[in-house]
Amino acid sequence: MNFVFQFLGDTEQSEDVVQDTMLKLYEKKHYYREIAKFSTWIYTIARNLANTELRKRKRRKVTVLSQMTRDEREYELPAVQPETGQEVESEYAAKRIQIAIHALPEHFKTVIILRDIQELSYEDISSIVGVPLGTVKSRINRARLQLQADLKDLR
Asked: CA neighbours within 13 Å on the CB side: how many for 149?
């Protein structure tokens, strides 16, 4: 779930994609070849479905709040709990990191999520994304450099 959420940034859509992944695993179980780890196969399917959802999202109509009527804009705001300064800073940093990851090009975003968030090995990542090991290492390094540059003001 966390892996898919890192791609989509939406809990509800992530749950849908995870459910679709499980269905696809069941439907296509006879295609699994034991030459690869089962987890690698799962991540590959989840990544492909998450990318499909991102493409669908780009085609969907987005309603801007300022274009909505007054009645449409009225909704109940959730209660705000008081937080300490450190909690606010930590939440802000986490949100900035998530935004920076989502801003990365797709080929960088995929490998950085698999390596630094899901903590998969370079070999597993290579199998999931279908590129040579050296390419995976290069993409991870470039993604980290880009994130470091984008987040330099958080130090």
From this structure: 8
